[in-house]
């Protein structure tokens, strides 16, 4: 192989690699999380007021991630956290959370119309001690850690429902993780 043939082969290989890189640069993935992900879009969401400390933890996480709208046509997000399983004598704390997305009644006469409801569960373990006050504090700390985990799970649930709503204009086919406990679509959210 002469020098000119080798140079031509290297030039041809270089051009092929550059063409492949240009073609690959046209392909892109949009991250679900991060600065440019779907959750960073301006969703028109309003959040209900918390009724307990554990709900406050969840709402703070959701508001920080999605923002809070005061618009009259904003979708209302309601979260209920069950704290019935917090017991100072148990080794673990389990919380059940229900997230509901509702649309305001167009006439403004009745309750918001539920569009989507999902249930998630989160838990946290705690140490055992013979002291009553320390056991209660450990149970409260474990409940707050479980609420933070529950907030992350509910945030991903809300995010997936909003991505489906954004793409389809309806919540009829939400993404459902098979490891979750329950997802229910109550009615279409067509716009």
SSE topology sketch:
Layout: H1 3-26, E1 45-47, H2 53-66, E2 75-82, E3 92-103, E4 113-125, H3 132-168, E5 182-185
Parallel strand pairs: 1-2
Antiparallel strand pairs: 2-3, 3-4, 4-5
Helix pairs in contact: 2-3
Please summarize what this structure is.
With 191 residues, this protein is an alpha+beta fold.
Would you give an account of this structure?
It is flat and about 90 Å long. 39% of the residues lie in helices and 21% in strands. The protein has three helices and five strands, in the order H-E-H-E-E-E-H-E. The chain folds into two domains: 30 residues; 151 residues, 2-Layer Sandwich (Double Stranded RNA Binding Domain). It has a five-stranded mixed β-sheet with strand order 1-2-3-4-5. The C terminus is likely disordered. It is α+β, with helices and mostly antiparallel strands and 191 residues long.
Task: From the structure above, extract its key features.
single chain; 191 residues; five-stranded mixed β-sheet; 2 domains; alpha+beta; Double Stranded RNA Binding Domain
Just give the CATH class of the largest domain: Alpha Beta
Order of helices and strands: HEHEEEHE
Named CATH topology of the largest domain: Double Stranded RNA Binding Domain
State mean pLDDT (0 to 100 scale): 78
- Helix run count: 3
Low-confidence parts lasting 5 or more residues at pLDDT below 50?
173-178, 181-191
**Estimated structural class:** alpha+beta
Using DSSP, what is the number of strands? Answer: 5
Query: What is the approximate shape?
Result: flat
């Amino acid at each position: 192989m002469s020098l000119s043939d080798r140079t031509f082969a290297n030039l041809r290989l270089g051009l092929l690699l550059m063409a492949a890189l240009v073609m690959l640069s046209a392909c892109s993935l949009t991250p679900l999380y991060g600065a440019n992900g779907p959750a960073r879009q301006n969703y028109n969401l309003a959040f209900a007021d918390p009724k307990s400390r554990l709900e406050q933890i969840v709402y703070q996480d959701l508001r920080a991630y999605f923002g809070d709208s005061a618009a009259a046509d904003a979708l209302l997000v309601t979260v209920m956290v069950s704290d019935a399983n917090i017991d100072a004598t148990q080794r673990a704390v389990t919380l059940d959370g229900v997230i509901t997305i509702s649309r305001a009644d167009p006439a403004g006469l009745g309750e918001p119309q539920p569009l989507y409801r999902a249930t998630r569960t989160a838990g946290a373990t705690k140490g055992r001690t013979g002291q009553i006050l320390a056991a209660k504090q450990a149970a409260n700390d474990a409940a707050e850690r479980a609420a933070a985990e529950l907030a992350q799970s509910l945030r991903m649930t809300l995010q997936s429902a909003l991505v489906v709503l954004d793409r389809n204009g309806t919540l009829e086919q939400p993404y459902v993780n098979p490891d979750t406990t329950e997802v229910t679509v109550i009615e279409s959210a067509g716009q």
